[in-house]
Write the structure tokens for this entry.
Amino acid sequence: MPAPEGPLAGFRVGVTASRKAEEQIALLERRGAEVTWAPVLRTGMASAEDEALRAATAGVLAGPVDLLVATTGVGMKAWLAAVEQWGMREALLAHLERTEIIARGPKTVGALRAGGLRELWSPDSECFDDVLAHLRGRDLRGRRIVVQEHGQSLSMVAHALRRQGAEVQVVTVYRVEPAPDPAATFHLVDLVADRALDAVTFTAAPAVRAFLDAAEATGRHEEALEAFRGDVLAASVGPVTAAALQPLGVPTRWPRRSRLAAMVTLLEQELPTRRHGLVYAVAGGHVLRVHGERVLLDGGEVRLTPAPQAVLRALLSRPGHVVGRGELLGALPSGTAGSEHAVEMAVARLRRAIGPAAVQTVVKRGYRLALG
């Protein structure tokens, strides 16, 4: 049999998803990757038969709603589909007609509009942290808020909003169950801990926690974390999923747009870099070498904090070409202040680390890595 061809030929990737797993595996295998699949959780949408969802919907209809926070497109579609089967769709739409609606990202916006609802605000970043920051700056006393819950529990979010004086109801559309075959998860843990994989993809925060629980159960938790900190790339579909790993000191990569195809493209860019390293001659007469998480300037290692490291990665994705401030802002780690000032500060720190001439400002457009 001929060896596989493609940009990921020779790379081994673990996939933890259950939803859309076939699509993700096909994307990876078409690019030559060797895939190990271990669905760490079984996720699905609540249906019209779900009594808890019906009861939550009745609770929404029981009183005026001041604010609806819609967190996922697929979740909103499933909720509206169930409501239609109950014969309650028109009542719900009429009930929410004057409600202020916040959407987490463009897929959520699309689902809302297709369902006959209209958002008032949505963050450019698709990041739920920015939604929370938007709400934290407001007086919510006496306001009734409905939160459509996505793949991870938002109970702590609800508690935080209640502390601001709001009355909060969470509508859970997703259902998460244990993995049907825990042996596959344990095998994946072993492969990560033994550094027998080049990357593992995560598409939901609960999947990260389920993987880490399995690692704990097998006694290989610290080995798996050390592997992720070194030789095994942890790739997530977006910042919400990545946030489950970052507090553990795991450098996590995610694409600017939270899409499966974008995550696979990210792997195409990252994995060859981690294996072989890339070398750039940059302005100022310096040689910049990037090998995995290591950044070397003229042979000496440069220590970068997460924000300037994220900016450098974004600039290296298109060396010599302009990367806009909005894209750099989206590349910053979860929890970074969501403003262009945060980008400017990260760029300033990066310049101090690799030389002021290495990062060039392009007025009104953004920044680029200035090649020598």
